[in-house]
Amino acid sequence: MASTDWPELLYKFDTARIRNARSCVFNDMERAELLMGVFGRGKSRVCAVAAAATAKEMAGQIRTALRETPTVELRLDWLRSDAERRRLLDWVKRQKFGAPVVLMATCRRVPGGGRFRGGIEREMYWLRQSADAGCGWCDVEVETLRELLGKTVRGYGVPSRVLFSAHDFKGMPALRREMKFADNDGVTAVKMAARANTIADSVRLLGLARSSVNFVAVPMGEIGLPARILALREGSALAYAPVGGATAPGQVSLREMMHLYRAHELTKSTQVFGVIGDPVGHSLSPLLHNTGFIARHVDAVYLPFLVHRLKDFLDAVGALGMRGFSVTLPHKQAILKYLKECDPLAAEIGAVNTVVVRGDGSLYGSNTDYVGVLGALERKMRLRGSRVLVFGAGGAARSTAFALARAGADVVICARREQLGKKLARAVYGEFVRRRALRSEKFEAIINATPVGLHPHSKISPLSARESNCRIVMDLIYRPLDTELLKIARKKGISTVSGLDMFLAQGFAQWKLWTGKSTPEAAMRRAVLQSLRAEEAPSERSRGSRA
Length: 547
Fold this sequence. Notes:
By secondary structure, the chain is an alpha/beta fold. The chain has helices at 6-19, 31-36, 55-66, 82-95, 120-133, 142-145, 199-211, 225-230, 254-260, 285-295, 310-314, 317-320, 344-349, 369-378, 395-406, 418-427, 484-491, 500-515, 521-546, and strands at residues 46-50, 71-75, 102-106, 137-141, 161-168, 187-195, 215-220, 239-242, 271-277, 300-306, 322-327, 341-342, 354-357, 363-366, 387-391, 410-414, 431-432, 443-448, 470-475, 495-497. Strands 7-6-5-4-3-2-1-8 form an eight-stranded parallel beta sheet. A six-stranded mixed beta sheet has the order 10-9-11-13-14-12. Strands 17-16-15-18-19-20 form a six-stranded parallel beta sheet, with helices on both faces. Helix 4 packs parallel to helix 5 (120-133) and helix 10 packs across helix 18 (500-515). The longest helix has 26 residues, at 521-546. Residues 15-35 have low confidence and may be disordered.
């Protein structure tokens, strides 16, 4: 359905129900339930999504989900046949789930963005069967409700509580300031799920959650991901997280939602931090910083923000309650013009990777990248008087070049953007060499400060073996741990330095700057290493099986 179609029907439905209501909230709801929300408090407001092709798989997902939250959505439309739907509901009925377990059946048809190819009668049939199996809730999409006789689910025998949902996978529709519904015709709560194409879209949908009662706000897409996590904090009745694979764009897994981001524990007093970049999905900064918050019992959360336009994010800093953020490609230099103040070293470098949001909303910038570069290299070599090549001329390259120059190294710059490279070389009183000269030049160390070779393009190297004439090669990329450049260097007998050391050191410095507390380095390092090793283990096993 087009983004301009369903809001009109939704609001008409809203108005029609309100006229017959005894109050602007739910007529038959007990006061205690109103105060805590129809799904309860805490972890019960995280809805685990069980979606699989077979009843056996989905039953396993339900068991997994119930170890984390009592609220589970059963995506009946994902099951590959009616026979599998029957097997699952028979299994659910045998379990005799009691309180506090809340099961919500969804059999979303294709027109509503689901996978069920049956008609509306068959959808209603399976929702009736889910009620008989013990599901207390069902999700009925706007496309179905508009076709039902009288636009009501009453008389169809579906579960007693209905979440009326509307989805737009293309964009955010026009939103009013609040949504109020009466508990008539079986509709108990309302969900709006819409793609956020800008961070401003996310902020608007969260605003609707803040001002509405028993309303579920679901910003979709990677840009909407941070707002998904903050939705409970802003008043959304539910937040969704899949047990298995994602069922909608921009989801985070149930385990991440519960244990990394702790969405059900976030309150208005929770400090919000994040990383901004484009791309940003590869970043392990959320794992690094949230692990630190958990280890030190800091009431804070760190989120990944995909930012295409810097101004879009900065306009939302106040509304999101941001207290600070990391800056990565391509915004490290562009952020400078928005800062009220800047650390002298960061100003000299001309690139910022860390921002503190002060009490008055102004931004203070600094750069912690140089800490990691020096720490990683100084364990391997003496920098003073050594000839070191920095490959690249962007924000990371500038931080690296200035750090090396301060340590007394003779800095050499090589970059695809020649004018930018020459400008950087002049700034650090170094020299510039063209790419074609690298085969004959020799260095003590070569540092890759470009994103070439970054996951998912990890099979590419920024430099060839013939261009790597040095004693040490360092790659600022840390994902993957073992980049193609480092593999090439080792084949030539060159000592290598992973970008992980730099990543950790700069992150530790950021964490301390934001919190003012001692950094739990061991816990943070262990979490990142475990994640990287787990990520690379499948490819290692795959190579072993082909050998």
